Description:
The protein is α/β, with parallel strands linked by helices. It has two domains: 17-67, no CATH class; 105-370, Glycosidases (TIM Barrel), CATH 3.20.20. The chain is built from 14 helices and twelve strands. The chain has helices at 16-40, 61-67, 111-114, 117-129, 153-157, 167-175, 190-195, 223-239, 270-284, 298-302, 306-309, 313-319, 332-340, 350-353; strands at residues 44-47, 50-53, 105-109, 134-140, 179-185, 202-203, 243-247, 258-259, 291-295, 323-326, 354-358, 368-370. It has an eight-stranded parallel beta barrel with strand order 3-4-5-7-9-10-11-12, surrounded by five helices. A two-stranded antiparallel ribbon has the order 1-2.
Amino acid sequence: MPYRPKDIYRGRRKFRVPLNIFLFVLAFLLVGGVTMFYVLQRYMVYGADGATLQLPSFGSQEQTSELEGIPPEPTFEPVQVQVIWEDPDFEDMDLGGWEDLEPIQGMFYSLNTVTSAEDLAAAVSSMTSGSYTTAVFEMKSASGQLAWPSDNATARDYATSGPTDMTETIQALHEAGKTVAAQISCFSDNLMVQRNWTCALQYSTGGLYQDSNGNFWVDPYNHTIRSYLTDLARELAAMGFDEIILADLIHPVAEQGFGYSVVLQTEPDPVVAVCQMGRRIVDALQGTGVAVSARISTNSMRNGLSEQTGQDIGIFWRLFARLYCPTTIDMVATDRDMAAGFMEEDAGSTDVRFVPITGYTPEDSPSYILG
């Protein structure tokens, strides 16, 4: 006889209700635990003794803080202020440093000479036996390569150091009665750009700037570059150099606009960027007895491009001990007179402070460097 489902006896499931309740409670606890875990993350405090949970107080903040031995947090009221960013004023600046200088007649030795033991020995021999008063050694070229094994962290990180210890060379020249100057390239630096492109001078469109010689340049506002150059100048002063000459302390001129690696509160100004870098190095060497000079471009004087190049000759005269200027034999007198036109009264003599760099000995210039 066929059976009907309702005629079949089914036993009562005694554990269904408790099991459902248990599963519900478990799910609630899991969800609540996960939620509390993420909510309480904002109140976790990590210290030397490990992590602690500090819940917000619902009572008096002052009373709670006193009980914990912690002074109450100050209460600040909103105020309205106006922040005004102004460019530095170089007008009244006169750092001196040139009063005890004498005219110099010197020879310039490139980085290749400095990094070759044979060439360097020959240079020292010719200096000690000759009538020249000063040896100018290129210690950092436009490529970014250093001549000496620098201890600077940036030089180590980007492998820009060179092989030559100049201590004995400087000592030998000093014993021969010669002065020794170190020339460093400031803003032209291939190696730094290739190995740390964030320091590069870039167009506003994003491309890297290169000059007509294919050299990359660094951002004159970049903090890493400013610290790097200042530290290198300190190292050279500590070696015993009598003078530091800043070459390529100039802002490139291009038809396209430039973009910078820092956020500026004012309009970019090549004069501010260049002169601030020079001022930073001069200030860093105050009290060392080391003169800081600059190598200028004739474009800044002859063609009226000082606002674009940043080489304001009037400021440079107040900032640096000497101005070195690459020129030609037939233009030495003209360039000297033109540079003198930017000097203020009682600023010394161009016979001492203006040093033409030429290929031949100029007859009418008490100071010169043969390049």
